[in-house]
Design goal:
By secondary structure, this protein is of the alpha/beta class. It has two domains: 11-183 and 288-325, 3-Layer(aba) Sandwich (Rossmann fold), CATH 3.40.50; 190-284, no CATH class. The protein has eight helices and 20 strands. It has helices at residues 23-34, 119-131, 168-182, 190-202, 225-228, 242-250, 269-277, 307-318; strands at residues 11-16, 40-44, 47-48, 63-65, 70-74, 85-95, 98-105, 109-111, 113-114, 135-140, 155-161, 206-209, 212-215, 231-235, 240-241, 256-259, 265-266, 281-284, 289-296, 323-325. The strands form five sheets. It has a nine-stranded mixed beta sheet, with helices on both faces. Helix 3 (168-182) packs parallel to helix 8 (307-318). The chain is globular, with a radius of gyration of 21 Å.
Length: 328
């Protein structure tokens, strides 16, 4: 059912490239596969387990929580099933659904998960799960890319579904854009790493010019171009956007750009490919391990795309990453 081995990791994010691609179904399959091996911990970045999708109104599968598992959710979503819990602890944080709690279930249940609202709350929950030696399953909302940080999550599975595009070609393009970002290299030059860490500490761009690192002296990347071009490497503590890459290309300036990880990369497929093809380079301080790409060729309204075509097109960018079809 799940053609990958997860024994060596302690946390896994399941991230969809669009809504209604089948994340919850896949999480239930992973849970069924792993529950006999170790205790599980569940946390969501959105609202999961509701009967219908809040945006589309389409029916959704429930999140199945095996007996003996832990979950993070809102107190309001578990108070009506008190006989199923033998431990509930409030974390002192609040979401739109109420107080965030972690709870231990004594029976197999279908639960609703209210997503954590901040990176800090996710970090706290994952630390609690780690202390209990749980396998953490993180249901990643499609629009919350920033939560899949390698400092928090050991690995991820990317979920591709029929709702991600109008046809197979568009879906393959979107999937391959994600995979291309994840495949960008990790910075291994120690001098660059030291420079970038200083940029992170100061929350200000640093760079390397004439072989020496230093604080970027201008208030913006979009300052006088002639002053900027001598910088060979730039450490960007924030996000990298299309506007920034277009600025570099407009001036035929291709420094090495260092970012924390792929969650700081907000660029379109065309702009990224063009920048790299023209000689630009983007490196990460850390990368996240992509364990696999799960493909669901159906849509909630019953339309079915060509699963073989999707898998074949995605495998070209996935390289050695397993790609498989699963049924929603």
């Amino acid at each position: 059912m799940i053609p990958i081995v997860l024994d060596e990791i302690g946390s896994l994010a399941v991230v969809g490239i669009a809504k209604n691609v089948g994340k919850t179904t896949l999480i239930n399959q992973i849970s069924k596969h792993e529950k006999a091996k170790r205790q599980l911990g569940f946390v969501s970045l959105g609202i999961d387990g509701e009967d219908r999708d809040a945006w589309s109104g389409l029916p959704k599968p429930a999140v199945t929580i095996p007996a003996g598992s832990w979950l993070a959710t809102s107190r309001s979503l578990i108070q009506w099933e008190e006989e199923c819990w033998d431990y509930v602890e409030g974390l002192g944080s609040y979401t739109l659904m109420g107080e965030l709690v972690v709870a231990h279930t004594t029976a197999d249940i279908e639960a609703k998960l209210a997503g954590v609202g901040t990176l800090h709350d996710l970090e706290r929950v994952l630390q609690l799960f780690q202390n209990k030696q749980l396998f953490a399953l993180v249901d990643g909302a499609y629009d919350r890319k920033s939560f899949a940080r390698p400092t928090l999550i050991e690995a991820m599975i990317l979920v591709i579904g029929g709702t991600a595009g109008r046809d197979e070609h568009e879906i393959i393009r979107k999937a391959n854009h994600w995979l291309q970002q994840a495949d960008l290299p990790v910075c291994i030059e120690s001098y660059y790493v030291e420079m970038f860490c200083q940029a992170k500490r100061e929350n200000h761009i640093w760079g390397i010019r004439n072989g020496k690192s230093g604080r970027f002296p201008f208030p913006s990347l979009f300052s006088s171009f002639e002053e900027l071009r001598s910088w060979e490497v730039l450490g960007l503590p924030g996000a990298l956007t299309d506007k920034m890459l277009r600025f570099f290309m407009d001036h035929q300036w291709y420094p090495i750009l260092i970012l924390s990880d792929m969650t700081h990369l907000f660029v379109s497929d065309f702009v990224l490919r063009t920048f790299l093809r023209k000689g630009g380079s983007i490196e990460f301080l850390q990368s996240i391990q992509v364990k696999g790409v799960a493909v669901n060729p159906t849509t909630p309204v019953g339309k079915r795309l060509d699963g073989d075509k999707l898998i074949s097109g995605i495998k070209q960018a996935a390289r050695n990453i397993p790609v498989w079809e699963f049924k929603k």
